[in-house]
From TrEMBL:
This is NADH-quinone oxidoreductase. Its EC number is 7.1.1.-. It catalyses: a quinone + NADH + 5 H(+)(in) = a quinol + NAD(+) + 4 H(+)(out). It comes from Piscirickettsia salmonis. It is an enzyme of class 7 (translocase). GO terms for cellular component: membrane. GO terms for molecular function: 2 iron, 2 sulfur cluster binding; 4 iron, 4 sulfur cluster binding; metal ion binding; NADH dehydrogenase (ubiquinone) activity; oxidoreductase activity, acting on NAD(P)H; quinone binding. Belongs to the complex I 75 kDa subunit family.
Amino acid sequence: MSTVQIEIDGEKLEVQQGSMIIEAADEAGIRIPRFCYHKKLSVAANCRMCLIEVENGRKPMPACATPVTDGMKVFTKSPLAIASQKSVMEFLLINHPLDCPICDQGGQCELQDLAMGYGSDSSRYVEGKRSVSDKNIGPLISTELTRCIQCTRCVRFGTEIAGIRELGMTGRGEHSEIGTFIEHSVNSEMSGNVIDVCPVGALTAKPSRFTARAWEVNALESIAPHDCIGSNIAIHTRRSDVMSVAPCENESLNEVWISDRDRFSYKGLESSERVYKPQIKRNGVWTEVEWQDALNIVAARMHETVKEHGPEQLGALASPSCSVEELYLLQKLMRGLGSHNIDHRLRDIDFSDQYAAPLYPRFDGSIAELDDQNALLLIGSNIHKEVPIAAHRVRKAAVRGAAVSALSPLTFTYSFDVKQWVAPLTTWLNALALIVKHAAQKTAVTADASLVDIVNTAAGDQAQAERIASELLEAEKATITLGYYALTSPEAALFRALAFELARITKAKVLLLTEGSNSAGAWLSGAVPHRLVAGHGIGDAAGYHTQEMLEKKLKLYFLLNTEPSFACANSHAALDAVKNADFVVSLLPFKNHIMNEYVDVILPIAPFSETSGTLINAAGDWQSFAAAVMPKGDVRPAWKVLRVLGNLLQIDGFDQESSTDVIAEVKRELIHAQADLSAGPWQMTENLKAFNYGNDGDLTFIPQLSLYSVDALVRRASDLQQTADAAKKQVYMSVATLERKGFTVGDSVKIKHGGISALHTVAVDDHVPDGSVLIPVGTAAAVDLAMPYRSVELIRD
C-alpha cells in the first residue's frame, strides 16, 4: 500500500495512505485522548474526545475518523485542540457519579486518567444529575450504567466481534442508555470482553466485584489451559490468591480477546472440593498424610502390581490439558515399569487409524491465517461452543467474504453466514465422501485406494456436495476443520481419512480442533500407547488405548488431572473399571463424592496457576508459562510428584530439578530423533469401517458436551455454571420423536444405558434428528452412561 507524508506536532511521518490520524499518531507514539475508539472495532466518532486541529481546517476534527492526506499538518496539543478536548471532558463529567473510591475500575479507568489531564477541579453544572437503573445481564457482568459515557464500544463488540447484538443503545439525548433490547442475559461465549473494552466502570466483572483494587494486584502472563488455541492471558494476583484473569495481546492467536471460559475458570480454584494435602482412604475414611508416606504407598503398590500381575496391569489416563512436562514424565514412569498403557484421548471412540497418525496433530499454518481463508468447511463442529477464539477467526473470514459451509448431524447456531448441510447420523459420513467424489471428478484425480469404495458409492444431495467441492477448489486459501462430533465419532478414522483426502485433492489445509489445550504435546511426548516420545514406534509392544484399558479392567489405574466419570466417552465402563481395580491413585487438585467409591490415594497437584509448564496448540506453537502464585497448602506441581515417584521406583532419568530441565530433555529427544515438527497428513490405512447406527426402536444417544464441562477446573467454576450454556441440562428431542415416544415437555426421565442416570427433564429441540436424543455429557447427571451413538432407553420417573 502506498504511503503519504504528514506532520503531527512538528514531527514528520510517513504513514499508510487511508489510515486515520489516530492510527498514525499511535504508531508514532503520539498519544491522543480517546474513549470510543478501539483499534479492533469500527469507528464511531461519537465521544469527540480525540478532537484535534488540522492546518486549514474549519473546525476541530475527530482524529479517529479523519483520514490522513499527503502534506497534512496535525496539531494535537494546540490551544484549539486542548480547549476542544477539555470541553468534551466537561460534558462527559456532567452526569458521571463520583464513584471512584468504590468503583472496580478505579486505578485502571480511562476516564479517571483523562479527567486528571483534561478535567476541571470544579463543575459549572448545577442541575440534577441523570441516573440510570442497572440491568441484570447475567452472572458474569456487573452493570453500573449511571457511569456509562455512551461510547458504544460494548455494542460494537457484540455486533462486530461476538457476532451477537445483545447490547444496544436505546432512548435519545439525555435519556440514552445501554441495555438489552429485551430483558435477558448476555450469553455470548466471549461476553466478558465488554469488561475490557468499557473505558469506565459501567461494565465490570461480577465474580471479582469489590475484591481488589487495581494497584493491589500483580499481572503475570500465562496460557489458557482449556482449548487447543492457547490464548494468552494475564493472571491478576494479590499475595497468594488469583483475583481475576484478563487477555494478553497476541495477534497471532487471540488478538486482544479471550473466551469467558478462559476468563472466569479461575473461580474453580476456590472450590470447596480443593484438596490441599495428600489423602489416603483407610476403611472407607479419608485420612490426611505426609507426602512421603503417600508416595511410598503409591510406589509400593505400583511395584507390587508389576511383580504379581505384570506391567500390562498398570494403566495411566491423563487429561489432554496436562503440560508437555507432566505427560513426558508420566509416560517415562509407566514405561520405566514396563507398561505402555497410557493415553490422553479420553473421549475418543475410534482408534483404528492411530498407526496412520502423523507425528502430532498440527495445522499447516497459523491460527491467524484463518482470517484470510476464502473457503472453509466445518465438519461436525459447533465451533462457538468448542473453541470460541477459532470461531472468532472464522467469523472474520466470513465477514470478509469467505464461503463457509458446515456439515454435521445437528443444526448449530453460528454468528456468521454459513451454509449448513445437516445429514442424519447414518449418512453424514457418506455426505463427506460425496464431497470428495465431486472434488475428484472435477480435478480428474483418483481417490486413494483405501477410500475408493466409499467414495465411488457415495450418494445423496448432489447439489450440496457439488457446491462445497467447487468452493474449496476455487478458493486460493481453503481450510477444512474437524470438530468434536467428527473427532469423537465412532467413525472418526474415516472422517479424518476423507478430510485429508479432500484436502489433498483441493489443496486445502486441515485443522483438527482437538480436545484440551495440549493434545499435540501429548502425541509428541509419547502419551499414547503405541509410540514413544518423538514418535518412535514400538510395534507389537504397543499398550492399550483408553477404551481397551477400561474394558480390560486393569489392576491399577493412575489418573493424571482427570476424572474418568466425567472425562471418558464411556462413563459407565470407566466407573466400572476403576471401581473394580485393586488400586487407584488420583493426581488432581480436587476430589468429589464419586471418587470416594474408587480412589485409594489422592495426591493434590497444583492447578495451572500454581505450576509451570509448556503447552503446544493446534498450530504447533510451543508456549511456556510460569506459576502465577505459589502452590497452596501442601500442594505440589505434578511434574515434581512424577519425578519423585520415578526416584522411589528406582527408574533411571528422574533427576530433573525444574520444569525447564524437563522440557529441555523433551527437545533433546526430538532433536536426537530428527523429528520433523512440520504438519503432516493422516496417512491412509486399510480396512476402515463405517459404524452401524441401526437401533432397535429405541433412541440414539447423541452427546452434547458443554463448553463449561470440559475439565475439572471449569466444572467447578461456580459463576460459569450459572450461565445459560451450563444450564442446559435437559435431554432434547424433536417434536415428532417426543410424540412417538409418548413424552411431554417437562417430563422427568432417567436414562438407561449401561447404568441408570440421574433425573433429566425432557425438552424439545427440532434441531435434533428424529429418532435421536441429545444428552448433556461431562455432568454429574450423565455419570454412568455408556458409549454414545448407541441405543438408549428413557424411563419416565
